Amino acid sequence: MTEPFQIKKILNNNVVIAGHPSHGEVVLIGKGLGFKKKPGDSIDEQSVEKFFTLVDKKEQEQYKQLISQIDEQLVELMNDVVFHIEKRFQTPLSEHIHVALTDHIGFAIKRLEQGLEFNNPFLIETRVLYEKEYQVAEEILDMIRERLGIALPESEAGFIAMHIHSALTRRHLAEIKQYSDLILKLIQIVESSLHIIINRKSISYLRLITHLRYAIERTVRGEEVSEPKGFSDLLKAQYPVCYNLAWKLAKVMEQSLGQPVSEAEVSYLTLHLHRLNN
Question: PRD domain: from which residue to which, for each copy (predicted)?
Answer without folding.
Answer: 69-174, 175-278
